[in-house]
């Protein structure tokens, strides 16, 4: 008898499709962001603004209610808008020599 000869499921049980990554996060993502969590959502002020034009300083100074609204809308949508998934990388040359370090 072959080693892997067991049936894939019991005949009396319904066949359930495999879960996707989105399904595995569904229980976690349904919980709204709380005010305390939104207040802790800070970015280093030395970080430059991205293509959206929102600087770290502006985000950090935003009222708690605005942060709460933005974060919960992002969770509700299930994925960020394309505008928030774009980034810009700027390489800043070291002062002095051009060696690796």
UniProtKB/TrEMBL annotation:
- Residues annotated as region Disordered? 1-20
Name of the protein in its database record = Retrovirus-related Pol polyprotein from type-1 retrotransposable element R2
The lineage's top-level taxon is Eukaryota
Q: Which organism is it from?
A: Lygus hesperus
